[in-house]
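User: Design a sequence. Structure:
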């Protein structure tokens, strides 16, 4: 399996490498929240010796309700991510939703992320792959909720074709639609996707979502099972995941997006220490 590297950060992900932590906030709510979260997570991952990539979304384009908060937008959001990157000396990750966003996002983000709902959109994947390669980054692709793990081969092939055979793809498991308003994670998907010769991560935050089923808003937002995040994360690392994707908030119940699925920032150290221990056993 390929080991992929962000050379400018001396960060590697894949077989035989440390567990990579892609973590931060769901959506960029404020500068203060982004800075506090990045500062805390950098300290925790530094103490544990785990590679860290800060994540924050500038736009949540797939909100359940038109009235839901989406984020600061492309320009302001990328400026804030660039500030986090410079202030704490860490790589950053964010997602994009349109072909025209790929290049400006790749100029800032070291991990250019394709949202699960859009991972079958060929033009979007190709644009992100080319932009990531041109700017020295990697493409982090979330597996669509309706997609079988073996069908992600088509995504990997699209990327390789777009960038002349270069290996820049990281696949991400984030749950599969299971009937209405529910997701499940098949842990067999992780080794199956790794057989494609790419690193695989687990998005343990979005894997516990209950899409369109938040009782607080009568279905106008997505619900979640916060207590399940650690269970999914530990299980996925035990199944061979090369990295974990986690979202935190200083007060999850007041988060402007996916509060029921994100963890309190104070829980980061204990969870990451346990995940590191599981990864060490598996490795």
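Assistant: Done.
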């Amino acid at each position: 399996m390929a080991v992929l590297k962000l050379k400018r950060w001396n960060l590697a992900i894949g077989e035989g490498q440390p567990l990579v932590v892609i973590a931060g906030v769901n959506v960029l709510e404020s500068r203060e929240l982004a800075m506090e979260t990045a500062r805390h997570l950098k300290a925790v991952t530094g103490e544990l010796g785990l590679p860290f990539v800060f994540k924050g979304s500038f736009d949540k384009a797939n909100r359940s309700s038109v009235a839901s908060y989406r984020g600061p937008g492309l320009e302001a959001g990328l400026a804030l991510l660039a500030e986090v990157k410079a202030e704490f000396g860490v790589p950053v990750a964010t997602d994009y939703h349109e072909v025209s966003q790929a290049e400006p996002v790749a100029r800032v983000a070291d991990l250019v992320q394709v949202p699960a709902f859009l991972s079958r959109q060929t033009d979007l994947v190709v644009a992100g792959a080319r932009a990531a390669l041109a700017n020295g980054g990697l493409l982090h692709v979330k597996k669509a909720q309706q997609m079988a793990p073996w069908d992600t081969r088509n995504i990997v092939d699209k990327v390789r074709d777009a960038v002349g055979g270069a290996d820049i793809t990281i696949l991400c498991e984030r749950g599969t639609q299971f009937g209405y308003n529910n997701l499940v994670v098949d842990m067999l998907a992780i080794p199956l996707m790794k057989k494609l010769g790419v690193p695989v991560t687990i998005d343990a935050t979005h894997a516990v979502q209950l899409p369109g089923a938040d009782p607080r808003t009568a279905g106008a937002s997505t619900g979640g099972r916060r207590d399940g995040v650690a269970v999914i994360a530990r299980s996925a690392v035990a199944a061979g995941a090369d990295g974990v994707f986690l979202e935190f908030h200083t007060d999850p119940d007041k988060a402007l997006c996916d509060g029921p699925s994100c963890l309190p920032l104070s829980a980061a150290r204990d969870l990451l220490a346990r995940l590191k221990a599981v990864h060490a056993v598996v490795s």
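The chain has a mean pLDDT of 92. The first helix runs from residue 31 to 48.
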